[in-house]
Design goal:
Chain lengths: 277, 92
């Protein structure tokens, strides 16, 4: 089955992972900007990162016929440096018209601090002024519920934002309902120990239905599994769900969400195959 | 949306997996008891005990309730608590 991983950090992965993803049916990935494992010191560090995300990664993905898209921001962990964050936010528009840039992300909260919230609001303002879609990171473990509710408060306070163009990621059993109830998209992240497992993601599809639900691996430099979406596909099949429902969640839903971005130019795999013939 | 499997089929599929996970939890708690020191007053230990109560209370939404058990409370007045500046965005 063809699928799309809507949240994966391929700059942290080796080229062999692209090959493995392609072999398992992955036809497209979307890569939000995130924390590199260390705090970057200058705006030029982010300029180089955005260059990598918009030029080299699409090329590397293309070697395996995987279509690559990206989102730009300074992430919540580095938002404690408000001065640098503002410099990065001011620089982001230089890259927003590049092919494959789907919007602003992954912005959000980490420890639910004042500086994180201020920079989150400033990202929202940029997205509203530039009519960009938004991809949001929600905090980990004990901070997730509080942080998700704070994020929803800030999103709902801003009437410029179209909720159907916002994806709130890393939802779990206690946060998925408020996200969907407000009309946002919700992403379930499959991680080995934290976040969600494939079986629990299937439970949430069964509980809330497939509308506006996405599933991703968020594969990165830490313990993570870039092929977690195929694990979800298998879990859905073993649970007895039809292929049409599985395809909706792992392929049609990401296409529907991404299609709202002006830079989303997707070639269906069937078309790519016919070009080869 | 309902789960396509019957309760019997779910039990057949998941019994050994759940049994194994219960043994992992039981062995972890035994290990805690055997280790030197006492963590009975540690909030994490109390949280584990409360989570085990949720597992056996026979009510629905166990996963969601355990998630909430291990979550910080949401403060609806967080903007005041953090002394947030007024947003420039138009209010809803």
């Amino acid at each position: 089955m063809y699928y799309i991983d809507p949240h994966i950090h391929m700059v942290s992965r080796v080229t062999d992972d692209y090959e493995t993803l392609a072999k398992m049916g992955c036809v497209a990935v979307s890569e939000p900007a995130f924390w590199a494992g260390f705090d970057r010191g200058t705006v030029d560090g982010f300029r180089d990162y955005f260059h990598q995300l918009t030029e080299f990664e699409p090329k590397r993905a293309g070697w395996y016929r995987v279509q690559h898209y990206t989102w730009l921001c300074i992430n919540a962990k580095e938002a404690e440096n408000v001065k640098l964050s503002r410099e990065v936010i001011a620089m982001i528009p230089e890259y927003l018209d590049r092919p494959g840039v789907l919007g602003i992300g992954e912005i959000g909260l980490n420890k639910n601090t004042k500086n994180e919230a201020i920079i989150f609001l400033e990202h929202l303002d940029l997205a509203a002024k530039t009519d960009e879609q938004i991809l949001i990171h929600t905090p980990h473990l004990e901070d997730k519920y509080q942080g998700t509710r704070m994020i929803l408060d800030m999103l709902c306070d801003d009437r410029r934002l179209d909720h159907s163009r916002v994806l709130v990621d890393h939802v779990e059993e206690h946060t998925v309902r408020p996200v969907l109830d407000e009309g946002f998209w919700a992403g379930m992240t499959l991680y080995p120990t934290t976040k969600c497992t494939p079986e629990r993601a299937v439970d949430m599809v069964e509980t809330y239905g497939p509308e506006r639900l996405l599933v991703n691996s968020a594969g990165d430099w830490g313990p993570s599994k870039p092929t977690a979406v195929p694990d979800f596909i298998l879990a859905m099949r073993l649970r007895g769900h039809p292929e049409s429902l599985i395809r909706q969640v792992v392929y049609e839903n990401p296409l529907k969400f991404f299609s709202q971005s002006r830079n989303f130019d997707f070639t269906p795999p069937e078309v790519l195959e016919s070009e080869v013939r | 949306m309902t789960i396509p499997l019957t309760a019997n089929e779910v039990l057949d599929r998941e019994f050994l997996d759940v049994r194994s996970k219960l043994l992992l939890v039981a062995a972890s708690l035994d290990r805690l008891d055997r280790a030197e020191g006492n963590v009975e007053r540690d909030p994490r230990r109390r949280g584990l005990a409360e989570a085990l109560d949720i597992l056996s209370d026979g009510k629905e939404d166990r996963a969601e309730r355990i998630q909430m058990l291990f979550s910080r409370q949401y403060d609806a007045d967080w903007k005041q608590s953090l002394d947030m500046p007024r947003s420039g965005a138009p209010p809803r």
